[in-house]
Amino acid sequence: MCNLNQGIEDKGIAIGEAGEKVKIIISMYNKRFTPEQIPAVIEIVEKG
After folding, report:
1. Distant-in-sequence, close-in-space partners of 24: CB < 8 Å, separation ≥ 6
2. pLDDT tens, residue by residue, 24-46
3. Contact yes or no for 41/28 (Cβ under 8 A)
4. Can you tell me the distance from the alpha carbon of 5 to that of 7, in angstroms, rounded to the nearest whole number?
5. Is the backbone of residue 32 left (phi > 0), alpha (psi -120 to 50) or beta?
6. In a 10 Å sphere around its CB, with 0-12 CB exposed, 13-18 middle and 19+ buried, how is residue 36 labelled?
7. Which of 14, 16, 25, 33 lies at a 20 to 30 A Cα distance from 8?
8. What is the pTM of this model?
9. Cα-based angle 28, 21, 12 (whole degrees, multiple of 5)
10. Cα 24 to the chain's mean position, in Å?
11. Spatial CB neighbours of 37, under 8 Å, sequence gap ≥ 6
12. Helices marked H in the chain — which ranges?
């Protein structure tokens, strides 16, 4: 695969991962997590 294709693929994967994080954050907000709790939980999930 050429470098351009790899770069496009990597960017697509990053966009997909970011979209999943947004869905998780919105879900947490809808379940009444406070704005202080959300980043604390997200940080734990990313480290784990």
Report:
1. 42, 45
2. 899 999 999 998 999 888 876 66
3. yes
4. 5
5. left
6. exposed
7. 25
8. 0.63
9. 160
10. 8
11. 28
12. 3-30, 37-47
Q: Which two tokens mark 21?
A: 């994080």
Q: Are 25 and 38 in contact (CB under 8 A)?
A: yes
Q: How far apart are CA 48 and CA 44, in angstroms?
A: 6
Amino acid at position 23, single letter: K
Question: For residue 11, what are its two tokens?
Answer: 């960017």
Q: What is the pLDDT of residue 13?
A: 82
